[in-house]
């Protein structure tokens, strides 16, 4: 498989990961405010293992969650990209198999500046363009209004809710909203339809 591509937008670059990103990535993943909509912050070992899984996904599929940085001031500010959902049991039956999700995570100083939306639009264009995906999904907690608000601004449509199969019964974060975006709808929106 070829090296991962670098994707660029007006302010941002989605690039392959570097070993030098590990400390900043670990600091972001350990921040309780960044991780407030996840079951728990990650310690350094868990963060490094997550970065290793991202690298393995790129090696297998040629895409994944890219490291996110600004053109004006290089340095890791978060992640954004696309990933195949690895769950053994997919909680929705009418999605493409295996479904591909879009996701993002930004360090606190870089939130609320439109970076997640710019990065997500770049990732969607790559997914529906060069990768030729038919559908991209996203999911989040009902209380994560900033995240599902972004999903809606991206043109994704809510398609019910599901219980996350990797969280136990009774876990307060088990229920997730599901969003979908199909390639024809993405194309129509880009054409102004």
Structure overview:
- The chain is an alpha+beta fold and 193 residues long.
- It has one domain (7-190): Gcn5-related N-acetyltransferase (GNAT) (Aminopeptidase).
- 30% of the residues lie in helices and 25% in strands.
- It is built from 5 helices and 8 strands, in the order ββααβββαβαββα.
- It has helices at 22-30, 44-61, 115-128, 145-153, 183-190, and strands at 7-8, 12-15, 65-70, 76-84, 100-106, 135-140, 157-163, 175-182.
- Strand 3 (65-70) and strand 4 form a beta hairpin.
- The longest helix is centred in the first third of the chain and has 18 residues, at 44-61.
- The chain is globular.
- The chain starts with 6 loop residues before the first strand and ends with a helix.
């Amino acid at each position: 498989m070829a090296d991962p591509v670098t994707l660029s937008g007006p302010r941002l670059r989605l690039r392959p990961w570097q070993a030098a990103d590990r400390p900043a990535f670990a600091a972001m993943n350990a921040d309780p405010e960044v991780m407030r909509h996840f079951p728990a912050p990650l310690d350094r070992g868990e963060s490094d293992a997550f970065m290793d899984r991202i690298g393995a996904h790129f090696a297998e599929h040629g895409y994944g969650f890219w490291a996110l940085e600004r053109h004006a001031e290089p340095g890791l500010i978060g992640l954004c990209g696309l990933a195949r959902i690895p769950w053994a049991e997919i909680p929705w039956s009418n999605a493409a198999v295996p479904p591909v999700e879009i996701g993002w995570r930004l360090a606190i100083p870089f939130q609320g500046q439109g970076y997640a939306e710019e990065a997500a639009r770049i990732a969607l264009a790559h997914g529906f363009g060069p990768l030729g995906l038919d559908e991209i999904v996203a999911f989040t907690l009902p209380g994560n209004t900033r995240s599902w608000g972004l999903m809606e601004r991206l043109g994704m449509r809510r398609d019910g809710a599901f219980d996350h199969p990797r969280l136990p019964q009774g876990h307060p974060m088990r229920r997730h909203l599901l969003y979908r975006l199909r390639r024809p709808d993405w194309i129509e929106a880009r054409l102004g339809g």
